[in-house]
Hints:
Mopterin_synth/thiamin_S_b, single chain, 5-stranded mixed sheet, ThiS/MoaD-like, 9 strands, 3 helices, alpha+beta, Molybdopterin converting factor, small subunit, Ubiquitin-like (UB roll), 22% helix
Amino acid sequence: xxxxxxxxxxxxxxxxxxxxxxxxxxxxxxxxxxxxxxxxxxxxxxxxxxxxxxxxxxxxxxxxxxxxxxxxxxxxxxxxxxxxxxxxxx
Length: 90
């Protein structure tokens, strides 16, 4: 299945482009994120903390916020906003 994925922030340096076409088996949002990391390994540190998707990662499916367990239909577009790196407090 092909899914158009738009990435924001530091994910662009991992994918080399703002929008990429992801070739994957299909499934749920969490599967799409895993496939994105398979295709662009440098994206992993922006999306995952160990084996878990970072709580601050935001995914939109066809313009609406999507949970990790939401199915991704054929032809849907995803947008991924990575975790925001925090600064130190003084």
